[in-house]
Structure formats: C-alpha cells, structure tokens
Amino acid sequence: MNTLFDPAKIIQLKALCSEARTIAIASHTNPDGDAIGSGVALTAFLRSLGYEVRFFVPNHFPKFLAFIPGSEGVEIYSEACETARPYLSDADLIICSDFNQVSRLDKMTDAIEANVIAPRVLIDHHMDPPEYELSFSDANYSSTSHMVYDLICAWSGPQAITPQIATALYVGIVTDTGNLSYSNLTPELYRAVAELVERGAQPVEVSKAIFNTQSESRLRMVGYLLSEKMHVDHDLHTAHITLTRAEKTRFNHQIGDTEGIVNMPLSIEDVTFSAMFIETLDCIKISFRSQGDFDVNLFARDHFNGGGHKNAAGGRYFGPMSEAVAKFEEIIRTVHP
Fold first, then answer.
1. 3-state class of 270 per DSSP?
2. What sign for the dihedral angle of Cα 189, 27, 287, 167?
C-alpha cells in the first residue's frame, strides 16, 4: 500500500470522521470527471459507514457525467446556496477533493471560509498544497480518483468498493488520464483499474458515454476550431486555439463542450506545447498542455495567475482576448519548449 495512506493517517481520518456529526465534501469550479468521480465515490463510501455526508460543487458539471450512479445527488452551490451555505458553514468536517486552493470555489469560497472551526482534510494530486489538519497530497498520482481508491482500500479493503463506487472512480481515472494515455501511468494505476473493473466498472459503457457521445453542435465546433482558429508555430513547437463568447453562442456551447480540445494540437508531430483561450464573462480562461519536460504548471503560475500539473495546467487573463494571445506569443518566444 502506498505510504501516503499509512495506518496512522487512516486512523487520524477515521477519528475525524467519527467526531463529526456532519461532513461536507467540496470540489472545484467547472467540475470535471475526476472531481465528480472522486467526490461521488467518497460520498458513497462514507455514507456506507453511517456518516452524514453531502457533496458540493460550485456550478454545473458536463451532462455526459450524469450517467455516473450517484451524480444526481451532487449539490450545485450556485443553484442551492440557501440550503448549501448553512451546511458548509456549520459542518463538523470539510473534505477538499481534487483541488487545493479554496479560491477555486468561486462563490462557495465564502461559505467554507466562514467555517473557522471544522478541520480540513485534503485529498488532491495537484502541486503546491497548503497546510491542512490532515493531507493526502501527491502530485505523482494521475488523478484524485486513484487516490480515493487507495484511501478506501487502506480504510476498509477493496471489498468496500461497490459497483457504484467502482464506476465513479473509473470515470475519474480515465478522464484525468485521457483514457489512460497521459503521464503518470504507473503499474499501480493499472492494478487499480483492473480491480475497479472486477468490482463493477464497465469500460465499454464508460468509454461510450465519455468519449463517443457528443452533440452535433459540439462536433461542428471542434471542426471549426481546428480548421479556422488553431494557430501553429512549428519553429516554437507550439499551438494555440481561441474561442470567443460569440463563437460559443454560435455553436450552442454547453458545459463540457471544450473538454479535451486543448490536447488535440499535441498530436501534430512537432508540437509539444498547446494552449486554449476561452472567453468568459469575467476573464479569458486558459488551458495549457505539454509533452516532455516543459513545465506548464510553472508557466501558468509565472505568467497567467494559474497552476496545475507539470504537463497540464490552467490560468486566467483579465483583459481582452487579443491582449491575452499577444502576451502568450511574446512570452513563448523567450521560454518556448
């Protein structure tokens, strides 16, 4: 068993849960498959032990994740803040799953920060974690869902993994690894995946729901972005794509429609760094992906108010799209991969 989940830390976690009448699990804004998968699985596991647990995310998750058993119980803070805020503010224990900065919770941040008594438990695989009362943090994991799998096995053994939990964790793993194609693909990960399949996860059904089901408008948007909006600089081994609010309206953009697009330019033979700029009401949201040794976590932190992993990170620019792209192009000439 991974030393991250050694018996002493599991005993401490059990004690924190046992002392709590109410437990709140929170995950990040614009929740992805790993956020929903790890949160749903952890919620189901703790409820199976008799704990009162509620799982909150700041806003809606993509519709294609709705097939996960238990996802119907995920509470959307932006739609239910009147009931969610008191619970978060008064919960006896707060578990932060798949994020390590409370600022990533948007309006939900205030409710959690108002709770100055509840201990925090961190379960996350992103870099540079803050200090919490109890932390399970390791950037070598490819997903938080894999971490939750190891946590459950350390707590109760793999027999505690129901088909519902197995499906949720499998979804989290495959979405955060690009269907097992990114980095950190360790033998331990494949053993975990095998166990999840044995426990009830259905790879074919998950693959169809996640990777092979999309709307016509989304497919047309992807074609348009790759054909008309992708700029490739072969000399700098870099590509970037832009998506404006007007273009989102044109293609009836839905939450989750841009998932994975930033990775597509990396399939070009000599491109090792890709960025996607998406215009929102508040800022330009930027996703960064790289192959090899170029650290997009540092790039995002140093230049675009962001961070993440070595090969996958995000950032923001507070200004017009043209300025964001111009800044990116200027920087990349001096720190190109």
1. coil
2. positive
- DSSP annotation string for 147-173: HHHHHHHHHH-GGG--HHHHHHHHHHH
Residues 60, 314: Cα–Cα separation, whole Å: 19
- Lowest model confidence (mean pLDDT) among 141-150, 182-191, 240-249: 182-191
For 184-200, how does the pLDDT look when each residue is reduced to its tens digit (9 = 90+)?
789 999 999 999 999 99
- Rounded Cα distance between 139 and 295, Å, is 13
Instruction: Give the confidence band of 1 by pLDDT, cuts at 50, 70, 90.
Output: very low
Question: Cα dist. 117→6, 43, 113, 229 in Å?
Answer: 26, 21, 10, 49
Please give the single-letter amino acid code of residue 130. Answer: P
As a residue count, the chain comes to 337
Q: What is the pTM of this model?
A: 0.86
What lies within 8 Å, CB to CB, of 185 at 6+ separation is 142, 177
Confidence of residue 307 (pLDDT cuts 50, 70, 90): confident
Q: CB within 8 A of 277, min separation 6: which ones?
A: 240, 241, 242, 243, 284, 285, 286, 317, 321, 324, 325, 328
Distance of CA 30 to the CA centre of its chain: 8
Phi–psi pair at 150, nearest 5 degrees: -65, -35
The reported pLDDT for the residue numbered 141 is 93
